[in-house]
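To: structure desk
From: M.T.
Subject: fold request, one chain
Message: Could you run this one when you get a chance? Sequence is below, nothing fancy, just the single chain.
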Amino acid sequence: MKGFLQQLFDYNFYCNKQLIEQFDQMDKLPKKSVELFNHILNAHHVWNHRILDTSPEFEVWEKHKPKAWNDIHYDNQRTSFEIITNTDDFNRRIDYVSTEGRAYGNEIKDILFHIVNHATHHRGQILADLRASKIEPIPLDYIFYKR
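Reply: Done. Structure tokens follow.
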């Protein structure tokens, strides 16, 4: 389980880093892409803190300057790897309160998978937004990463 989750987070890290690098090369970033990328970083941060049972520093739709993205991204990744490394029972239930104020509980493995899957979903939206803005995005499919 640990090895597989580490691979998924390596992939997630790679994809986000690729987008940050592509964004760094652009003069003007599409507004929707900026909103979605901030959301990816913020949601990852929030889920890490739910697992750790600590208060997050960011709201899920909080806006950050693109210059801050690398630091947030690296911190998210480091924290997720620490969680994976230090978890002995991935079936352990984490109880938390959603951003809407509702109580839920999920197993750590499901939350960790959700972080990566959620980011993949929104990166797809970002790639579509870039194409709609006449910008050719870099391919971020998992299989391309594994080649």
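Reply (cont.): The first helix runs from residue 2 to 24. Let me know if you need anything else for the meeting.
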